[in-house]
Write a structure and sequence with these properties.
mainly alpha
Length: 86
């Protein structure tokens, strides 16, 4: 059964992505300020990351920020328009 995409669904997804962004930002901040490792606790899982994973964490943060922008645009009526010939 497909899930309808409505404002309630988008609000829930936006909240989830914001939490993920906060978790990744906290890990990056901790590792940038001297911690050798940091445990991301989502409440469901725990993942320990190290300084060696900073590049991956930054890419993940960029991905999540783009995902948030897309969800926010959908919620607020934004969208993409395809022009003829493109």
């Amino acid at each position: 059964m497909a899930t309808a995409i409505d404002n309630d669904w988008l609000d829930a997804r936006i909240a989830k992505v914001k939490t993920q962004i906060t978790n990744v930002e906290d890990a990056i901040d901790a590792l940038d300020t001297g911690a050798q490792s940091y445990t991301i606790d989502t409440g469901q899982t725990k993942q320990t990351v190290t300084k060696a994973q900073l590049g991956s964490l930054r890419r993940t943060l960029e991905y999540l920020e783009n995902k948030l922008a897309t969800l926010d645009a959908r919620r607020n009526g934004g969208g993409a328009r395809v022009l003829p010939g493109w």
